[in-house]
Amino acid sequence: MRFLTRPAFVAILAALESSLVSAEPASCLASSVTSCANAIKSTKTRTLSLTSWCSSVLGCQKSTTTITGEPVTTTSTKVVWETYTYEYILTEEVVTTTFDYTETEYTAVATVVLTPTFTVERFAVTTVKPRSRRWDEAVHAKDLLKRATTSICPSAIETQACSCILTSCAPPVTKDERKTIKERTVETSYTLFEVPITYTNTEWIPIYTTETEKYTDTIKSGVMSTHTTTIKCTPSSTNPSFYLQATDAPPVNGQYWWAAPTHPRLLSFSIEAAFTPDILEATVFSLDSANRLITRHKNGTMYANVDHYTHFTLVHHMTREEIRKRSYEFLRCEVKPASGKYPGNYGELYCLADGGFHRNVWNYCPLYLEWFNSPLVIGDYWSETSPDCFPITFLIKPVCEGA
Q: Which CATH number fits domain 236-403: 2.80.10, 2.60.40, 1.10.10, 2.20.25?
């Protein structure tokens, strides 16, 4: 075994270090570029913010390739096996028997009126002076709205530093707009078994008895109370409050989303969605730092959510504790620019439910209003047939509009 002397060992280490350093571009090793890169990373602490900012500095352009053409058909076949047992009479016996049949007559002896109280949330808007905000308080809003790029270092060094941080621009995005047609075929196979039985033919003769039962008549008469929440109108706020005005759906076209208790209530721990033509009764919404759709209530902050059982489900309002207790899914939303289809040049609400289903299509279903007193549905498609529904687009009407 041969051992290296200390000078030889030091020379080998120096050669390895030199080869590692030369692997990086010489421009990325310059102290000014390294300092600029460290300044950018310390300012843009989130990966999304850092990537977006450097992409802007390097002039990266988003490229989308759209695939169009004939619909794509997918076919699946399901085989169902059904087994039936067929009984046939081998012998028959006739038996006569009697039974007691009691008819009850009910007589009211008193009337009691119950008056449960349902609380409706009202919102009073006041205008306050805008205050300065630190960037770290508005990271999510800054990324969502894609604010203009500002310089951190001199432009020449800044471009080189971003080139060292971001090795390349984002690749093109491919968007498939071809319609998918799913064809499902069900094949059923049957198996039949014959079982011989002895049949007993019973003739029933009733013996009648009448009883009188007294009861107390109970009447429920709900009382609606009002609780007022004050909303501060801050025009320069990065997370402004807004009303949601429905469009397209004829029964509620032009009306406002109203998160109010319904009677009967669908779920005891939930507040359902309703609609009102009066903006003074409308619910005030906003988006929190995680882009969840929220509204204030006397019982706390209420989050818009759906259950996780289907891809076409009712929209509820619950506290965060109730949602987590039942593993329900938050609605995360953003404000899209006006499409030009509706007057007023208002932004439009786009929401997506957490979970496995891609639910982002708003529906108004009169049948669900009749059955559950909760007509607002979000699904991964617009229901044209069963149940009969109407598509809805929600316009964003700022609380501070005109302030």
A: 2.80.10
